[in-house]
From TrEMBL:
The gene is nrfF. The keyword Nucleotide-binding does not apply. GO terms for molecular function: lyase activity; metal ion binding. This is Formate-dependent nitrite reductase complex subunit. Keywords: Heme, Iron, Lyase, Membrane, Metal-binding, Signal, Transmembrane, Transmembrane helix.
């Protein structure tokens, strides 16, 4: 009986240890007001982690994201505006941290590229359809030799 209790306690202890190793840290920052907390969370959701691919600061568990979350929280509590915080982040980490890059000369390709590709695709489709219509509209004339061969084949099939 003692060995069974020992085995059960060892299994339980191993589950507790494994569970504690896999646990992720939770941010416990105290905001001055509920409005500041909401604003900080919205900002952190709208900013991308510079280390992770396509994860915002809230979803990412990287050390960089944790530091940036804390930075955003502190800046909001200090009374800085959203634009000021976003400007700080982009000056430090570049436009990559924004999910929606600004409309600037260097981001025209991002904003106008899909529209340009759509227009090119429509033009190619238009040219292709037009060529098909033109080739179908022109009657195919056959030579007298081909007509004689066709008549001979049709007579053979009718027999």
């Amino acid at each position: 009986m003692k060995s069974l209790v020992g085995i059960i306690s060892a299994v339980f202890l191993s589950f507790v240890l494994v569970g504690s190793v896999m646990a992720t840290p939770v941010d416990t920052y105290e905001f001055k007001s509920v409005d500041n907390q909401k604003r900080a969370l919205e900002l952190a959701h709208s900013l991308r982690c510079p280390q992770c691919q396509n994860q915002n600061l809230i979803d990412s568990n990287s050390p960089v994201a944790q530091d940036l979350r804390l930075e955003v929280y502190q800046m909001v509590d200090e009374g800085k505006g959203d634009e000021e915080i976003i400007e700080f982040m982009t000056s430090r980490y570049g436009e990559f941290v924004l999910y929606k890059p600004r409309m600037e000369a260097k981001t025209y390709v991002l904003w106008l590229g899909p529209l340009g590709l759509l227009l090119v695709g429509l033009m190619i489709g238009f040219v292709f359809v037009r060529k098909q219509r033109i080739s179908n509209a022109v009657e195919q004339e056959i030579s007298p030799e081909e007509q004689a061969e066709l008549d001979r084949l049709l007579k053979r099939d009718n027999k």
